[in-house]
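ok so i was messing around last nite and threw this chain in just to see what happens. nothing serious, just curious
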Amino acid sequence: MRVFITGASSGIGEALARHYAVQGATLGLVARRGDKLAALVSTLPGRPTPYVLDVADAAALQAAAADFNAGGLADIVIANAGISVGTLAQEAEDLHALRRVFETNVIGMANTFQPFIAPMSARGSGRLAGIASVAGIRGLPGAGAYSASKAANIAWLEALRGELRDSGVKVVTIAPGYIATPMTAVNSYPMPFLMPAEEAAWRFARAIARGTSYTVIPWQMGVVAKLLRLLPNPLFDAIFARTGRKPRGLDL
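result:
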């Protein structure tokens, strides 16, 4: 099994890399931070191939995909790279954050999958797994950039699933709730059903293996997501206008 993972240097990506390495997979691991990626690779069996690049760079991802596929076409591609930062629409400097979040979370996902779609379709098999978020279900005040990017992920993956319906390639949308990672460690508000990254990786991998079209992990957050969809706007606004918010100004 050959698995290509972006955002692999920490958090969910690192946990997924460790999970698949133990399963004996041949790994291609992508991250911006070369030092952290090298440190991870040194601890994994099977000599994974590291690719230090930014997923916003389409040409760099095409080169990495070509290099990885040269050793055998990927069976699973996981677009996991993502950034999260608090934003306020009234702040001019947050326009840069909005752009950067979309470049990484949305364009980066498309850049990740694009080089693999035609080869996988020609073969008639494969898994393209995109990591979205329950934050994409409704727009969360103070996290407009992140919520909007994850809503875009969910819609884009749904469209891609239809495009590839008869190709034999499965498109898997995973919408995590709160997972214990460096991304959530900065949150100062309560995070219900917080799940360890290692357990999340195991659950993600199971959904990918099954070719599940859409899943929320943990399942309890799936219930919450369904309730959020049904919540009338005035009630949603009243509740979430008062909730805790992610810090602004993180290093992007």
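not much to say yet. The two ends are 33 Å apart (CA to CA).
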